[in-house]
Amino acid sequence: MCIFCQIVKKEKGADIVFESERVVAFRDINPKAPTHILVVPKKHIGTINDMTEDDRELVGDMVFSAKIIAKEHKIDDGYKLAFNVGSKGGQIIDHIHLHLLGGKN
Ligand code: 5GP
Ligand code: ZN
């Protein structure tokens, strides 16, 4: 099982800040900004390239969740959302995740 599936199933610890039926979000262990949260679907999908038609709503749910989390963390005046795709795109963990970065001036 992949590391993010383990976090989703609570078999591995993480600082979870948001959870819904389909999505979980937790603080990045190696933050690259004052607020750095990873928004992760509970369903295992390797990369954005592995998305199917059925996943369109789920990925929309990830973005919508990020919007809510940004407001909760008071960074909604400006933040970055990013998907790394594949190793050439900087993706290390093979389970899709949306980086939510903010808190810089
Ligand atoms: P990627 O480079 O795949 O887009 O991003 C993976 C992110 O996951 C990295 O920013 C890395 O710091 C974070 N990460 C890796 N392993 C863990 C972990 O076990 N727990 C948490 N909370 N974050 C992790
Ligand atoms: Zn997984």
Automatic annotation (TrEMBL):
Instruction: Please tell me which stretches of this chain the record labels as motif Histidine triad motif.
Output: 95-99
The Gene Ontology terms for molecular function here are: catalytic activity
The record places the active site at 97
Coiled-coil features, chain-numbered ranges: none
Per its record, how is this protein called by name?
Histidine triad nucleotide-binding protein
Q: Which residues form the HIT domain?
A: 3-105
| Database matches in Pfam families | DcpS_C
